[in-house]
Amino acid sequence: MEALNLPPFKYKITKSGANYLIFDALRRKNVVLTPEEWVRQHFVHYLIGTLGYPKGLVSIERGTSYNTLQKRTDLCVYNQQGKPHLLVECKAAYVPITQDVVKQVSVYNQTLQAEFVVITNGLQHFCWQVDFETRKFEPLQEIPLCSFE
To answer: For position 63, what pLDDT does the model report?
Structure first.
C-alpha cells in the first residue's frame, strides 16, 4: 500500500484467500484492505491518536438517506449529544479530490448537518466549517482538534 500524508500507526494485516485484510479497531473485525480502506484506517487513527476524538464517538460506514437514496458515510464523529460533528469522506490515494467529490459530501451533509466536513485521499486533506444558516462552507487550514470535554 502507498505511503500516506498521515501519521503511521500499528496495523495488523492478514491474508484470506485472494484478499488481504486489515484489522479495524472500531468495528473489531478484519475488513478487506482496499486502497480506500487503507486511507480510512489511517484517518481513523489520526482522528483518535492525534486529534483526540474519543473512539466511541467515531462511526464507520453508517447508513443515511438522502431523498429516497440510501447512502453510507465513510466516517462520522458524533458529539456527546449524539449529533454529527465531523463528516469525513475518504478516497483512495490515486483518486483526485474534485468538485464532484465535494458535491457528494455536501449532499450527504445536507441530511447529517455536521459542523465540519473533511475530504481526504490520504495525500491531500480538505476541511470546511459549515454554517447552515448562511449556507456557507468556510475552508479551514487544519482539521479541528477534539473540543469535547
So the answer is: 55
CB 19 within 8 A of CB 32: yes
Mean of the per-residue pLDDT values of the chain: 90
Task: Enter the CATH code of domain 34-140.
Answer: 3.90.1570.30
pLDDT (average), residues 12-29: 94
Cβ neighbors of 5 (< 8 A, separation 6 or more) are 122, 123, 124, 125
Instruction: Tell me the chain's radius of gyration from C-alpha atoms.
Output: 15
What's the rounded mean pLDDT across residues 93-106? 91
Secondary structure of residue 58 in the 3-state scheme: strand
Q: Are 99 and 83 in contact (CB under 8 A)?
A: no
CA 7 distance to own-chain centroid: 15
Q: Is 54 helix (H, G, I), strand (E, B) or coil?
A: coil
- d(C-alpha 24, C-alpha 40), whole Å: 10
pLDDT at site 6:
96
pLDDT score recorded for residue 81: 93
What the block records as the C-alpha cell of 75 is 466516517
Calpha distance 123→74 (Å, rounded): 17
